[in-house]
Amino acid sequence: MRLVVVGLGRMGSALATALVASGDAVAGFDISADARERAHAAGVEVADSLAGAVAVADVVVTSLPTSATVREVVGELAGLLPAGSMLLEMSTCAPAFATQASTLLARRGITFVDCPVSGKPPAMTMLVGGAAGVLGEAEQVLGAAVSTLIHLGRLGGGYEAKLLQQYVKYARFLVGAEALAFARERGLDVAQTARALASGTGGRPGLATAEEHFLGDAAAVAAHAPTSTIVKDVGGLMRPKGPFAMSDADLNKIRGFQLYLPAESSDTVPGHTAPQYANTTTAVFFKNTRVQ
């Protein structure tokens, strides 16, 4: 099987060199002459043009920096790839693009799969927009660089999962930054505050708690503090006389979070009537996603 990597930047070159190190013959192309030279030095068979790189390719993997570049390159590849080949697109794009690209390439007998990645070889995670087996023989070859392969079941699912992955990651970054900004403003030692945050239960990824809810793990959910604790703790910190003074209007935004509670629960936020749902067991969704 002839595999070609298009886009020899940080991620693409890491993938190509990992495959070469495992003994696979890998070709590559990048518009940057410097990138081509670095890849060639690492053992990648480098072509001088996109057409030359993919002319007899069985599988092409694209790893490109922007959505506009992905769209442009995929459009070019539609006219260059041989029928029966496969295009695995590893960039981070809008889910709708997967359908557009698949439709365009299918007219020429080319299979498209969205496969965004995170991490670095040999421990990359690949989010596959399709069912198990959709990658065919390429799955075994990519195993030299990808340690975790997650099939999302349908076209575009890989892109969607990657965007959600980024959303969770950056939300945590922003919340952490906000907490440390508060600490600095109050004159606390930022490094020590960061240690305090990491060592407490608040350092536990919120994703794990959300997963317990969506998987129906009632026992795990019941082990957490009740939702009224959210209001008590946040109110104690941010009420007008607290260390991080917040107006009543803004505090009410927190109190007004739309909590999903079990039907039998009386654990409602003071002054707020929460809707009751029989099949839910914890408060994970909020009416307001941030306090302005």
How would you concisely characterize the structure shown here?
The protein is of the alpha/beta class and 292 residues long. It is 43% helix and 13% strand. The protein folds into 2 domains: 3-161, 3-Layer(aba) Sandwich (Rossmann fold), CATH 3.40.50.720; 204-292, no CATH class.
Number of helices: 12
Mean pLDDT: 80
What structural class do helix, strand and pairing data support?
alpha/beta
Task: Give the biggest sheet.
Answer: 6 strands, parallel
Number of strands: 11
* CATH third-level topology of the largest domain: Rossmann fold
Tell me the name of the CATH class of the largest domain.
Answer: Alpha Beta
As a whole number of angstroms, the C-alpha radius of gyration is 24 Å
Number of domains: 2
Helix content: 40-55%
How would you write the strand order of the largest sheet?
A: 3-2-1-4-5-6
The succession of helices and strands, N to C, reads: EHEHEHEHEHEEEHEHHHHHHEE
End-to-end Cα distance: 54 Å
